[in-house]
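### Sample
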Amino acid sequence: MTDTAPTARPIPGQVTLPDGRVELAPGTTPPSGPYANQDLLPVPVARRTWTTYNFSALWVGMAHNTASWTLASGLIAVGMDWKQAVFTIALANLIVLAPMLLTGHAGPKYGIPFPVFARASFGVRGANLPAVVRALVACGWFGIQTWIGGEAIYFLAGKLIGDGWRNAGHIGGHAWTMWLSFAVFWAIQVAIIHRGMETIRRFENWAAPFVLVGAFVMLWWMSGKAGGVGPLFDQPSRLGWGGDFWKLFWPSLMGMIGFWSTLSLNIPDFTRYGRSQRAQTWGQALGLPTTMTLFAFLSVLVTSGSQAVYGEPVWDPVQLAAKTDNPAGLLYALVTVLVATLSVNIAANLVSPAFDFSNVAPRKVSFRTGALITAVLAVLIFPWKLYSDPQGYIFTWLGLVGGLLGTVAGILVADYWLLRRTRLDLGDLYRPGGKYWYTGGWNWRAVVAFLAGGVLSLGGASLKPLTDGRPIPALAPLADYGWAVGLGTSLVLYLTLTLASGRRAAG
């Protein structure tokens, strides 16, 4: 069964409330079979309770974290001044907010998670392609953030405990106490996710203001070390505003967009619990660009201050905090970094892949099992290598992630907004042979658009420091615009293929 012509007629088996939210009709048997389980089914309207504050707190908790800090401080480390770094990050977050709101719309309207939402465009089976890609990216992020959390325990506890902890015997290039710290932080996160989404919501609510206060404390400390706030603003750009800056600006902008391109796909995993469209729209608009810009501002000032105080920029806040000899300050810094890292890692990098892996085998993999799979894979991708330097972190890892996931975002936006006009059939999202079954469960148009967008956005990318060279050198001019190239290519190609085949998608 394939797509039908657009229609405004009611869809059997579901009801639309006056506020536009849709749920399964009362008395309707919930979807079952090989493509459904309790975690993937639509959230009933009665359980869609998240408010504007919940979404804002979610973003504050996710934005105010060590990895976000290193985004901004990393730009200082590669030559920008505070104005250039803040401008780059603010613009990137305004840009990525657009696909975030567009894909997030399906969450409160239908109560479905990202992998189920992707079935409308990729097919009931084909949705596993973007879901697994997104999940593997999340595994990388989870590993990076867990390494950061373990590093915080190692460095700061070492200052409190002494040389016996810091100078322990090495295994695989790191002290065994560093590996122990990594394992402890890993276990804490798995324990929290095991308790479910409501626990995550409550954790984000109190973690958000705690971390923000911690960032201001670090600014106060560094300004005191530097002799006032003046030196924090006085550090010059090594690039100027000429060609050297703009050459660095575009890949930096794409890297900053790539940082949240993951959430621009799987944001329905959270907005499905939204009380209304207004709650998710205002919550995200107030939470993402404002808090990321503020946190970037704090980060670049502190990093500029470290350059004034220590003669070189210290881009890692954990290593910067470890320079203090005040035990109370160290303990506070340790707790702040741990809360910040827990906040973003659980929300951004465990929730999504848990649903994504569950989507691959709904009968065998639950939400909690999917989270455990993520946690295990995160160790196997060697996150300590990805995070080893700002050049590779921003331009290789984030650039590749942004380019790849931008292609998925383009297909989702084209299908849901431009073709379906936000109309979906909830029952058919779980049903073999329904309108989202396409050919054997796969929509070849989405697959072609994904592959084409991926090749154009990533083909010319530099893979340093992982390896030398580019996969397709002829595409090198596109490499600095990977996210935009991937999104634009897949959106246009998916629309063209769908309309050219005589199909116009509908609910």
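Strands lie at 14-16, 22-24, 170-171, 174-175. This sample (Nitrate reductase) is used throughout the tutorial notebook.
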